[in-house]
Each structure stands twice: as structure tokens, then as C-alpha cells.
Amino acid sequence: MNARPSDAIQVRPMKQADVEAVSAIEKRAYPFPWSPGIFRDCLRAGHHCWLLESPQVLLGYGVLSAAAGEAHLLNLCIAPEHQGHGHGRRLLARMIDLARWNRAAQVFLEVRPSNPRAIALYREYGFNEIGLRPNYYPATKGREDAIVMAIELVPPEFDR
After folding, report:
1. Tally of CB atoms within 10 A around 72
2. Does 141 fall in a domain?
3. 149 vs 5: which has the higher pLDDT
4. Which of these, 91, 89, 124, 92, lies nearest to 107 by C-alpha position?
5. How far apart are CA 123 and CA 129, in angstroms?
6. Is residue 157 one of the residues assigned to a domain?
7. Confidence class of residue 156 from pLDDT cuts 50, 70 and 90?
């Protein structure tokens, strides 16, 4: 039996040595990217920083903060050239697993209204819109609002 190409894809913790490669994806994916220093700070702060990679290439990354019974998905990104293959769904599932492992009851996130693919992914996964943060993101012409989304986490034995 032959292994499928997706079988070789793995998720692993990000290290300081990965920051430059992660930053390169961030710069390709967003007009207002996080700086390498922000990723380093997330690692130093103990946030859950994970990579999705194949043997040949870094596909994407996620950053999750978890404390006090809740989690916040700070960043989830798949390299633009690897989007549309289910990688975002796979990485999001891992981040939700990490939130559960940290006993979070909810996961929150912000997303740009101008990012319909991300909004669709989050809705498909069960996130609901719970609010709006006006002028949250920098934009080419001023600022852009953020849609605030959340999901309630059910303990795994009840999640069906």
C-alpha cells in the first residue's frame, strides 16, 4: 500500500530557528505582516506556536495563547501557494486540540472581513461571529474592522 502525499505532512512545535521561514510566509500572505520579533516574542511568552510542514517545505503555522480557561488564536496562516488543499483545516484542528489540552472552554479569534476564505473555514469548523472590533487592523486606506469569532469547546467525550 502506498502512502498518500498528505501522510508525510506533520505538525511540530515552532523553534526560534524557524522564525525567518515563518516570517517569509507571513510577508507573502499579508500586506501588513507580523515582524520576526513578534514571532520571537510569542515563543518567549510560551504561546503555542506550531508549524505544518511536508518533508520538502513549510506549509504554514499557527499561534495560540491559552490561559484562564480560554484560548485566543492569534495567527493561523498557510503559505499562499499551498492554500486550498485542506492544510488550514488540519492546522486549525491541531490548534483547537491544543486549546482543549489546556482546558480552554472557548477559543476566540479576530479575522478581517476582507478575508472570506478564512471566515468560511472558521464558520465551517463551528466558530460563530460574536462581535466587531472597529478599526482593528491596518489597511491600505486607513484601518479595517475585525470580526470577532468564538467557539465553545465541548469535552472530547461529548464532542460528536
Report:
1. 18
2. yes
3. 149
4. 92
5. 8
6. no
7. low
Q: How far is CA 41 from CA 37, 44, 47, 49, 67, in A?
A: 6, 5, 9, 11, 17
Q: Is 70 a catalytic residue?
A: no
Helices 19-29, 36-44: inter-axial angle, 10-degree rounding = 130
Kind of pairing between the strands at 48-53 and 58-67: antiparallel
Active site residue 129: no
- Whether residue 115 has pLDDT greater than 50: yes
Let me know: does 9 contact 51? Beta carbons within 8 Å.
Answer: no
> pLDDT for 25-52, tens place per residue?
999 999 999 999 999 999 999 999 999 9
Domain CATH code at residue 91: 3.40.630.30
Tell me how far apart the alpha carbons of residues 27 and 25 are, in angstroms, rounded to a whole number: 5
Q: Is residue 140 part of a domain?
A: yes
Catalytic position from the list 26, 53, 61, 122: 122
Q: Which domain holds residue 99?
A: 5-152
Q: How many structural domains comprise the chain? A: 1
Alpha carbon dihedral 24, 29, 30, 36, in 10-degree steps, equals -20
Q: Active-site residue among 30, 70, 110, 125?
A: 110
Whether 160 is covered by a domain: the verdict is no
